[in-house]
Design brief:
CATH topology: Purple Acid Phosphatase, chain A, domain 2
Strand order of the largest sheet: 1-2-5-6-8-7
Distance between the termini: 35 Å
Number of strands: 8
Number of helices: 3
Low-confidence stretches: none
Number of domains: 1
Organism: Actinoplanes hulinensis
Helix content: 10-25%
Shape: globular
Mean pLDDT: 91
Strand content: 25-35%
CATH class: Alpha Beta
Radius of gyration: 14 Å
Protein name: Metallophosphoesterase
InterPro entries: Metallo-depent_PP-like
Structural class: alpha/beta
């Protein structure tokens, strides 16, 4: 999907590939795709992918980071990208939401925040009261 196609959905819908937006006071950043051979669709070199994630969470970090390919979890069964885990351990977002690989236990700690693996799951964020 192109940025123009996403924009056609209206001003409250955004393509977050390296960018960030504020929705209802919540800062959300996102990076699409996965690390891999950039000759294949939706892939960038591991170095470029990690650099894009680092830029998306640069100070001040967003409240939420949305990724397709996520960091490794805190349990060995929670497979993911170990370089992303290292990049996000210090000063990362409160919540990183990702997928790409299935985790039986969908929640892991990451620095001062958490990783929620939504592979096969849905997440709805609502305003607190």
């Amino acid at each position: 999907m192109t940025a123009a196609e996403v924009g056609a959905y209206g001003p409250e819908v955004a393509l977050l590939d390296g960018g960030r937006r504020v929705f209802g006071g919540l800062t959300v950043a996102g990076v699409s795709g996965i690390a891999g051979d950039p000759a294949r669709p939706m892939r960038r070199t591991p170095e470029d992918f990690e650099a894009t994630v680092r830029a998306a969470v640069a100070a001040p970090p967003p409240d939420v980071l949305l990724l397709h390919e996520g960091p490794a979890g805190s349990d060995p069964e929670q497979r993911g990208n170990p370089a992303l885990r290292t990049a996000l351990e210090r000063g990362g977002p409160s919540l990183t939401v990702c997928g790409h690989v299935h985790w039986h236990d969908p929640l892991a700690t990451l620095g001062d925040g958490h990783v929620l693996n939504v592979d096969g799951r849905a997440v709805v964020l609502t305003a607190g009261r």
